[in-house]
Each structure stands twice: as C-alpha cells, then as structure tokens.
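Quality-control log, excerpt.
Job 1 of 2 completed; input and output follow.
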Amino acid sequence: MVRILSVRDPLAISVADKIVRKGLPLVYPTDTIYGLGGDAMSPELVERIYKLKKRPPFMPLSVMLASVQEFDKFSDLSESARRLIAAFLPGALTIILPLEADSPLKHIANADGMAGFRIPSNSFCLDLCARAERPIITSSVNYSGQPPLTRISDMTAQFGDLISIYVKDDKLENSKSLGSTIIRLLNNEIEFLREGAIPKSTILDFMRNN
C-alpha cells in the first residue's frame, strides 16, 4: 500500500526517521525538488536506489548531511572546498569531492573515489539527518536520464509501494524549481556538471574574489 504523509504532519519526521533506520527508501521534500533516498551507510539501500532509478553503476550518488562539520568525517577538504561550503551551504549546491581512503561511503563513490555532498536549506532534511545520525542519499525522483518528477501522484504512479513513504510538501507540487547546482572539485579545480538553482556565474565570481 502506498503511504503518503504531509510534511506538516507532526508524525512525518519520526516516521521518515524509522524508514531510514530500517534501510528502506523514501521520498522527501528539499529546498529545490523532491528527493529520493535512504540510509547512505547501507550498501543494500544504495543498490536498491540504483535499481529503482535504473541508474548506471558508474554514476555516483550524492548524500545530504546535517551540518558543515560532518564533511570532515568523509573527505579531506581542500581550502577551496572549505570556502565554497562556508559560502553556499546550507543551500542548493552539491559538491563532488574525493573520499577518504577508509571512508564508510566508498560504496556510493565513482571509479575515481569521489561522491557528492549537499546540505539542503530545508528544515525537514536537516532534522531527518540529525535524527537518523547518518548521511542520507539524495537523488532526484525519476528514472535515470529522465526529467525529475515534481508531483507525488506521478511518483506513486511510477514507483508505487517500492518506495516506503512519500512525504508531500504542497509548495513543491508541480514545482518549476531547478535542482541543485553540481560541481566537481579536485585539486582546487572546479568542473560544473550541472547548472541548477545557483548560477555558475555566482560561484565563479565568489571564487575569483575570495
């Protein structure tokens, strides 16, 4: 049976936390578009997300964190990375960074040992990460290569009860919002993989002036 809860429902956050802890997938609202995710520390959940999205295994997934301080648990940050994180997060920026050699997130990395990180400017996301006490996979709700779905009704029609819970936010329904801007940062060099809610020019101007 498909289960939908409003983000305004006082039970939504505790139910979502239980779903994450059980290693099951869920849909949740972010500061840009809806996200599909679950416990990033669980290789089984990660494999399930890949299958749900029909996503090629060479494409890394991203995770959301509860705070800036958590970055150091997973990546040896360069000075450029620290400046970008301080300036734009929480916010609509995903930064793909090299993981530490012994990172517990190696199962989400690409062949270069890199993975994406994000801190959404969204209280539900931040609360969920803090309650679950672990990073949470954050990916658009769609089949890989197709546009993100923006209505819960379309998501349930496509994925049904393969996703354990859908947390609905009326403000995101049929939203025209862009996803997060995605950059790859290695050796202080920035590569833009997707221009989203934060314009490329804004990031480049910041890097030139800071």
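Job 2 of 2 completed; input and output follow.
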Amino acid sequence: MSIKPSTSKQSNSDSILDHLEQLGYGTSFNDEVCEMLESCAMFDQIERYDIELIAAHMLAYKAEVNTILLQEGQRNPFMCLLVKGKLAVYKDRGVSDSEPTHLATILPGRTIGEMSLIDGQPHSASVTTTAPSTLLVLTRKRLNDLSRTHPKTANRLILKIAQLLSHRLRQTSGKLIDYL
C-alpha cells in the first residue's frame, strides 16, 4: 500500500507540530526520555549528564497513521527521534500526477529532519507515519537555547548529527555509483 504525502492532516501554512498530540517536555518524564535517547545509536558515547540536558530541550509527540511529519520543500527546522511506530520517506518525482518514490522505512531509534535542524533549509523529502508513532522532537530554537546555556553539550550533539549525516552521505554515494 502506497501512502502519498499529500493525504496529510496538516495544511501547508501551519506548523506540522501543531497537528500532533503533545505529550510534554522531556523534563516531565526525564528518565524515560533519557533511556530512549541512550538506546539510539546517535547518542552512543554521549555522557548521561549531556543526555539529560538534551532530553530537557526535547518535546514528545504522538502522531496517528498517515500524518505527514516532514513535507518536501517546506521549512520546519526540527529533528525527530522515532521512539515507537514506523515512518516512510518519500521523494517527489517532480512530475504532476505521479506517485512519490518511496526511499526508506524508518524504525524506532532512527532520526529524521537533521539537515533542516542544522541549516534551516527546506526538507529534501517527505516523511509520513505508517503506524501510530511516538516521537521526540528537538526544534532549532531549542537547540539554540541549549547552545547558549550548555555550549559543550550542544557541540557534542551537533558533532553527532554531523557524523550521522556524513555516514548517510557515504551510503548514498555508494549506492549512486551503481547508477553511473
């Protein structure tokens, strides 16, 4: 079954996060959020103290099936860590009336939206929930707050994001060579 991102419960003029059920700040259930972060490979080798600071800057949300989390071409500078559920990543082919191309399935422990969090540019793909999902969200504003109050922790997180993006670029380059 193909899920087109255009079936979203979200309008283009609103923030995507406004259409999700907010569960609270990371501080509300800090131990659970820290455990979720510690179980994610991206947070390997980050000390518990730093994880607690990062968790305090994140919000937890629930999203129903077929909810668009990221819309290709829109600016929503935030990163999501999928805690529970399943997501599908799609890329528009640029041809009207064509189905978007399914690029990947995202499972718990993986993140989305890292590039827009860092550079503030529009999303390069759309991401839709394919199962009821729970997400931890770090907005650019909250990352900037963390940078002002705890710059070393923010730098560690940004370095981890850079390493993740570098890894993904290497994977993509490896796949691209098959098409050249």
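Post-run check on job 2. Confidence is low (pLDDT under 50) at residues 1-14.
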